[in-house]
């Protein structure tokens, strides 16, 4: 769905996209409500393969990463930057896959970033994402589910404000 909307907006002339979404953390240090700025995404979904060859990595735009980091610092919020894992089968994540990606330094898992990055690379538009941890998959579910949690709601609202500020700043620096 995200790819379809971005394609439509590109056809209308848009050239800058920042996705805001949720992430299941797989590093023990990441808590519900923490911010993750993905630098790249492991491609474990179907959409990205329509935009890039199998051997090409899905990367976020470096300028967007830098601007998101700067904006997080201005807003005085902590954040993590690094690779994430994208799958379009979130209920098929296995413990062994989570442990494998955790050992590789992957920060968490989402459902859209690799498709967004791949589309952006193919269409030569600036794309990036800011994700908020809604759970930590290395802990017991009851202890870490962030839905209906005030910290998660506040973090999502702040993430939208941070991204809006980044978009405002970047649209004048083409």
CATH superfamily: Nucleoside phosphorylase domain
Order of helices and strands: HEEEHEHEHEHH
Our count of domains comes out at 1
Q: Might you state the CATH topology name?
A: Rossmann fold
Biggest sheet strand line-up: 1-5-4-2-6
Approximate helicity band: 25-40%
User: What distance lies between the first and last C-alpha atoms, to the nearest angstrom?
Assistant: 27 Å
Proportion of residues in extended strands: 25-35%
In words, what does this structure look like?
- The protein has about 170 residues and is of the alpha/beta class.
- The chain has one domain: 3-Layer(aba) Sandwich (Rossmann fold), CATH 3.40.50.
- The chain has helices at about 1-10, 60-75, 95-105, 115-125, 140-145, 150-170; strands at about 15-25, 35-45, 60, 80-85, 110, 125-135.
- The protein has a 5-stranded mixed β-barrel with strand order 1-5-4-2-6.
- Helix 3 links the parallel strand 4 (about 80-85) and strand 5 (about 110).
- Helix 1 (about 1-10) packs parallel to helix 4 (about 115-125) and helix 2 packs across helix 6.
- It is globular, with a radius of gyration of 15 Å.
- The model has no long low-confidence stretch (mean pLDDT about 90).
Can you give keywords for this protein?
174 residues, Rossmann fold, five-stranded mixed beta barrel, 6 helices
Gist of the model:
The protein is of the alpha/beta class. It has 6 helices and 6 strands.
Strands, helices and their partners?
Blueprint lengths: L1 H10 L4 E10 L9 E10 L13 E2 L2 H13 L4 E9 L7 H9 L4 E3 L2 H11 L2 E11 L4 H4 L5 H21 L4
Parallel strand pairs: 1-6, 2-4, 4-5
Antiparallel strand pairs: 1-5, 2-3, 2-6
